[in-house]
Each structure stands twice: as C-alpha cells, then as structure tokens.
Amino acid sequence: MLNLSYQLVELKFDVDLPFNVFDDEPGENTEELIELYTEYGFSMWLKQLADQIKEKPITKTIEPLVSESQDQKSTLLLQEFTQTLILKQADFESLLKQLSECTSFVFDLETNSLDYMNAEIVGLVFLLDKQSYYLPVARDYLDAPEQWSRQSVMKSLKPILESKVIGKICQNLKYDAHVLANIGIDLSGIVDDTMIKSYCLNSVATRHNMDDLSEYYLGHKTIHYADVAGSGKKQLTFNQVNIEEALPYACEDVIVTSELNKILESKLQQYPKLMTLYRTLELPLVNIILKLERNGVLVAEVSLFNQQVQIKSEMQEIQTQAFEIAGDEFNLESPKQIQQILFSEEGLGLKPKKKTTKGQPSTNEEALKQLDHPLVDLIMSYRTLTKLNSTYLEALPKQINRQTGRLHTSYHQAVTATGRLSSSKPNFQNIPIRTDQGAKIRSAFVSDKGNVILAADYSQIELRIMAHISKDKNLIEAFANNIDVHSATAAQVFNTELSEVSKEQRRKAKAINFGLIYGMSAFGLAKQIDVSRTEAKQYIDGYFENYPGVLKFMDETKEKAKSQGFVETILGRRLYLPQINAKNKMLQQHALRTAINAPMQGSSADIIKQAMLGIQAWINRENNGVKMIMQVHDELVFEMDANKTKEYAEDIGLMMSNAAKLSVPLVVDVGIGDSWQEAH
DNA sequence: GTGGCGTCC
DNA sequence: CAGAGGGACGCCACT
C-alpha cells in the first residue's frame, strides 16, 4: 500500500485531495499522511488508482470525504421554500399575526458586528413551515428602498420574542439573545439550538458552525457571508449589502437551520442519554453562559498600566544586556534568530538539546533550560516578560467595553472535544497564576464598589472522578478520609508511612497522579521529574500495584474505546475517537491517551456545568444580586455584595459539592477578596 | 496562513 | 527505531 503511495508521489499526479497532502514536496511524513488518509477510507480509492497508474498516468479528482452521517442525509430542496422580502406594512402585520399564532418558528438575526455587546440588528429572518421571510430594518447603501424604523419593528416583535409559549429554533442562539438583550428584549421560549444539538450528538465529527453543519449533514453548500459581503478590509457590514443579495443569504440561514434541526433531532432520538444531555444540561446552559458573558468582569486598568511600565523597563534592561553578550542586535522574540545566535558556528555554537517538529533546533523553555549560558537566561526572562505584556497587560485594557466598563469574554460551548468550555477575546481561562509576577495580573481583576470577589474551585476533581469511575478501593479510601492524595500516593508508591512522606516524594507522586490522568508514559514521567526511565517505570508499576482498580479502569477504557469507537463521561456524553484503530501507531496512541483522559476531563466539565445551572437557578430564585462572572474549568468566580459573603460562600460551596453524587466527596475550596488574586 | 512558543486547567 | 502528556487560545515572526 505504502509503496503504491510513493509511486503516486513520484509520478507527480495531478490529484485533488480534500486536504493539502501533496502541496509540498513529498517529505518525511508523507508515509504518515498516506496512512492517515487510508484510515479515513481512501484505501479503496487508492487501490483502484494504483491499478490504473500501472497502465498510464491519469488525472483524477477525488470527491470530498464522505461522512458517516450521509446514510441519513436529507436532500435539501431550496426551491421548496418561499423567500419573501417584507417591505410593506401590511405584509409585516400579516407576518406578526402568523408568528404570534404559531407554536414555533426558526429565527435568525442579521447584524452589523460580531462583537455581541455592540452589535445592532440590521434585519430579522423568520421561517414558518416552508415560508421564509426577511425583514430588513437598517439598510445603508445608495438607493436603498424605504425602510422600517428598527425601534417600532422591535417593539411589535418584543412580545413574540419574549413569549414562553411560542418556540424559537436558532443556530447559536446565544448570539441572537445577546443582540436582543442589548435593546432590552429577553429572548424566551427557546426550544432548539442546532449548534448545541450537533455538539451533543458528536463533538468531533464536524465543526458546529452553520456552513460546516450544512455540508456535513445536508450535503448542501451554503452561501457564505464573504460571498455577499466580501472579505478582508473591503468587507461590508450587512446593512451595506444590497437587498437582492441579502435576501437569499438571509433566508437560506433559517431554511438550513430548520432542516438541520429536523435531522439532528431524529439522530439524537436514537441516543437517549445524549438527548438528555442536550435537553437538561447543554441547552439550558446557553442562558447561563449568556448571563455570565453579559455580567463581565471589572478590571483595574491603572493597575495593568503600572505593571506594564514596570515590565517594559525590565525588558529594556534585558535587551541591552543580551545585545552586549551576543555582540549584535537581534530580535529576542524570533525563535529563528535565537537559533542562529545560539547554535550556529558564527554564533555561540551551543549544542541543541531538542528539535522542533520541522527538525530545527528548538528554542523553547524546555530546550533552553538545559543550556548553560548567560544569554539563554536572558532570553527566557525576556520571553516571560513579553508574554505577560503583549498577551495580558497590553491586550486586556483594549478589550474593555466602554459602555459597561467591564471585560466581556466569549465562552464557546461547542468547541472542545471533551465537553469543556473554551474562552476567547479575551481568553479568561489562561490568565497567569504560576509565578508571582504573572499572578499580579489577577489582582487587576477586581470587584465593584461595595462588592467582593468569591472564587470557588473543585479540589482534585479529575482524580476524584478517576477514583469514582475506577472504583479503586485505595484511591476512594484516601479521598473518603480526606487525606492529601499526593501524599497518600507517595506513601503507597514509596512504601512509607504517610507521616514519613518527604517533600520530594510528594512532588514525584503528584507528577505520577497527573501524568496518569493524561496517559503519560514512563519516558514522559522520567523527563518530568528528572529520574531515569527505569526508575520512572518502577514508580508507575508501584502505583498500579497499589491502585489496581486504576490499572483495570485504564485497560478497560482502552478496550472499550477500541471496540465501540468512543468513550463516555458520567452523564453519557460521548467522545468519538476515529483514530483509535488507526494503523499508524502514533495516531492510535494519541487516541488511546485521549480515551484515558476524556472521561475524567469530560465528567469534570459535566459536573461544573450542572453546578452552574443549579447556582444560577438559586441566584434567580433568591434574587440576591450574586453575579457569576467567570468559569475556568474547575473554578467558578462570583461578584457579590460584601455583606452577605459568608452565607453565600457556604451556599455556593454546597451547591458545587452536591452537583454530582460520586463515591468520593467533592471538595470545594472557597476564597473571598477584593480581587481574583486575593480570593485564592 | 503556519509554526513556534507560552499561558491556563 | 522514533516517539513516547489530555484539552484549549493568543502573540509573534515569517512566508
């Protein structure tokens, strides 16, 4: 098979693969790529092609990857739907009547910005049965026909959009809910979100934006935004797009959403646990995340500015010293130039310790740490400082919303493979904490006047989940007795009394505990804690001897993953592992490690999501003014009135602990302070 | 747009 | 024999 593949490369066939396999010169990893593609079902095609190659070179185009979902592919017939532009008062009133009398409709907003806090409505799109309607409310181009006043239109629509009995079906409804919230409309009666639905069904089969979903599930290529609005600098906002172009684009959105919703519903019905996950966890969570984002976080700009001044002067000093040692000026932020200076003959001529994926000498921290040269230390310090400066100190103030004076991140509910949220613009989930200088940034995340910050995080949640899932007696016992789990592991592995465990032993045990969660090998552990591979192997063996349940769990998980092609969390969320039976060992091993990790990472996500639902319900019920403002995987951060903090801290801690009933206690650490840093 | 690097859990 | 740690996002240099 592989030989054939090489022939294929050498003959330089003109083939269109769905990915850029042969864009570059055939390199070292060509074999790997061929393997990858054969795993994805190209083997048959390659075989056929190979037979033909023997005869004479040919040109052939491969159809894009056919997805598993195609067995149930619905054929979307756009012409079955009407597309109506609403411009006259009478038509609008008739639409209003239809909307107010229906049980549910599909709905989408066209806006002038992706920034959810500032976006304004440009048009509204509705679908009832097979009729789609586009209602433009803000057109801004030459010769634009007469238009509605947005205000009066929205006033008429408000009762419908806020109705709990008229159902709404959307793609990524959180965004539309934001834009409506900006003008005081509280979107209610949510029945479906196709983005979330697709994510629950299969998190990894496709991305969950409408264009990709349409291609994957309907085999229909949608009109893309860039097709009507252009791209890059010349991109128009939707209000500048001609109505003739806007109409089919807008209407297609609701038509596709409707068709997607139907097919996703029928698929999800085949998996009751996933349906429950969707209906009772993920879909209700949309509104909680909406609230979380709108609450935002107050940031002390002055503090960030002062830190920036300080760090910039430190950077200046380091740069001067570095140039002196190097004997020349160079860009301290360029790995390529650093490489030249450290490793080339003309430079320092140091011996590289590690290579990048491209085979060049690596200059990352791990590699640099092993080199002994003053310039290396300067480079590492400089890196740390520029990171803090550019990613946080400079970037955060720019993103403060000038109306609310707060930072509003975007949480993404349909991105990660495992069920975690992700966060961007700005990313709240990678704010520094490890070093003092880094953690100082958290001191700029503050509470408003009269308020405090409360941070509550699950202690060792993934290890507890491992204890729960594996049912390992020793591990469960350690947690049940509230013993420090790393010390307990150290006592077991090093065969000492718990009271005799040294700091060094605990450190190693901690690395073992975490390493195992990620499926780390003896090699990796050895590197991590700087012992020989043999020694690391002994530790791991020792661990499994003492926690046989964990070993059993891992073996069973791997076997299950191989036989059924997916692993599950405690709520039945599935993570499919398409490469679990790959012939390419590297790909398969990666899938196996994922199989080990996903049940723990994913279950942890399940639990904190449950907690978020419960806590927001409590906030609404008590109407106590508590604001949930951040989620960082195993931590929730709140802002609240400073007077009631003690009581609320206990409530929140309890709700988080009780979010799931495991065979070990879920311990939550709660801290309070004027800033996020103090609250830790 | 990609690769390298670094931040978090 | 190589490669041997799960999941994210953002910044910079470089092409």
Would you give an account of this structure?
It is a single chain. The strands form 6 sheets. The protein has a 6-stranded mixed β-sheet, with helices on both faces. It has a 4-stranded antiparallel β-sheet with strand order 17-18-14-19. The N terminus is likely disordered. The relative contact order is 0.08. α6 packs across α10. It is α+β, with helices and mostly antiparallel strands and 680 residues long. The chain is 50% helix and 12% strand. It starts with a helix and ends in a 7-residue tail after the last strand. The protein contains 25 helices and 19 strands. It binds a DNA duplex (9 and 15 nucleotides) through α12, α14, β12, α20 and α21.
How many beta-strand segments? 19
Sheet with the most strands, sense and barrel status: 6 strands, mixed
Report the helical percentage.
Answer: 40-55%
Q: Based on CA inertia axes, which overall geometry fits?
A: globular
Radius of gyration: 28 Å
First and last CA, distance: 57 Å
Strand content: 5-15%
**Contiguous uncertain segments of 5+ residues:** 1-71
Q: Helix segment count? A: 25
